[in-house]
Amino acid sequence: MDDRQLVIIGNGVAGITAARHLRKRSKVRIKVISSESKHFFSRTALMYVYMGHMKYEHIKPYEDHFWEKNRIELLHDRVEKIDFNSKTLQLQKGESLSYDQLIIASGSKTATHGWSGLELQGVQGMYSLQDLQSMEDSTRNCKNAVVIGGGLIGVEVAEMLVSRGIKVDYLVRESRFWGNVLPKEEADLVKQQIEAEGVNIHFNTEVDSFFGNDSEVLSGVKSKDGRTFDCQFAAVATGVKPNVDFLKDSALEIEKGILVNEHLETNLKDVYAIGDCAQLRNPLKDRRSIEAVWYVGKMMGEVVAANICGKPTKYQPSHWFNSAKFFNLEYQTYGVVDASGKDSICWVNDKKNQLIRLAFDPESNKIRGVNSLGVRLSHQQFDQWLNSELTIDQVINDLEKADFNPEFFNLPFSIIKEELRSQLKPISA
Asked: What is the pLDDT of residues 51-91, one digit of tens each?
């Protein structure tokens, strides 16, 4: 038995992946601390619990006996303070816990912007298990709701509310949906889908404040242009930020997140950071220093376990990818696609809410990225094409190879390829 005690703060996908791979590789004592929940659950499935499609026990990937069987001790508590000199954690319930090695995987929290009225009952983010319970309580008799923020979380919350027959006003600061990520054609299709579900979208609309009644319960949202939106619930979905406030006055080097090197080591010996709370000092080209998506947390969990177990491993993610659903509209992206739509070609079928965009380097003509809406493309195929640095012409010629749609879902590839080629000629001239 290894006498080292390894403590992990956070039981999300990053922390739990690290614990599982540490157990596969070693006999070190492992303790996982979380104030959110005792057991690991699928965060992306919280919306389906609210919508009645699943129960909480359905979104736990492992049976409760899994942890004891694998000698992973779970502590449902909050870390109040860390003494890095003595390697000691002070927990909210009063216990003091020592560690030999520490992994901080404390995740994200909702980013807010200093609006007045944030403390009102009925104003909240939607990230944690506690947020889900609060939303259940606040929307029990809700007729009108406001969602703030044009991104993935906002759409999920809108879908949750619509599923219960609640009227939704969706406030987006930009002139189009997710304007810093999606080109105009993609944003227009998403807008079309959201509005088809009965959601009222208000672009170029910034929040000024939240207001309530004498009981400090939300009754409406005021925008900077003077409009008011009566509501009993307001979801703040303006992004997330690293959950590192409890570490601000410590010896850890922190910018937006906890700074780590390519081995996910912090500036302190035997202390690592992974997942949403980690910020890479030297991110790879075309990758951000903080990437709050589940597969990044999973990869980091595997890498940190290898490093702790004596197999030096660099965190080297491949091409960026992400996927989501805007109500019933599926979205995928691989590689790099500029939000302006620059240096790309695009096929759109407005009637069926379908789109394929291919981005490329105008000098070399090599493929750089792809967006798709309402069309399923093969991650493996595009990863191979990006690694092989195929030209845009080669990708168009073999585009059928990336088809990942269900049986009987036939795309008109000859038409798609003809349209893409027609746009390519003047760009390449």
From this structure: 999 999 999 999 999 999 999 999 999 999 999 999 999 99
Specify the pLDDT at position 426. 66
Residue 170 to residue 110: CA distance in whole angstroms: 17
Between CA 286 and CA 119 the distance in angstroms is 38
For the chain, the farthest-separated pair of C-alpha atoms sits apart, in whole angstroms, at 70
Question: At residue 384, what is the residue type?
Answer: Q
Count of C-beta atoms within a 10 Å radius of residue 404: 16
Q: Is 169 exposed, middle or buried (0-12, 13-18, 19+ CB in 10 A)?
A: buried
pLDDT of residue 410 exceeding 90: no
What is the reported pTM?
0.95
Q: Which long-range contacts (CB under 8 A, 24 or more apart) does 202-205 make?
A: 202/169, 202/170, 202/171, 202/172, 203/172, 203/174, 203/175, 203/176, 203/177, 204/172, 204/173, 204/174, 204/175, 205/171, 205/172, 205/173
pLDDT at 306 (0 to 100):
98
The closest alpha carbon to 145, from 129, 165, 173, 174, belongs to: 165
Pick the CATH number of 5-109+241-308 from 3.50.50.60, 3.40.50.300, 3.40.50.12280, 3.40.50.1450: 3.50.50.60
Cα–Cα dist 357/169, whole Å: 30
Q: How far is it, in rounded angstroms, from Cα 116 to Cα 372? A: 39
CATH topology of domain 123-238: FAD/NAD(P)-binding domain (3.50.50)
* 399: nearest Cα among 429, 362, 357, 363: 357
- 282-319 pLDDT tens trace: 999 889 999 999 999 999 999 999 999 999 999 999 99
pLDDT in tens, 115-142: 999 999 999 999 999 999 999 999 999 9
Distance of CA 289 to the CA centre of its chain: 14
Q: Where are the beta strands (DSSP E) in 144-223?
A: 144-148, 167-171, 200-202, 207-212, 218-223
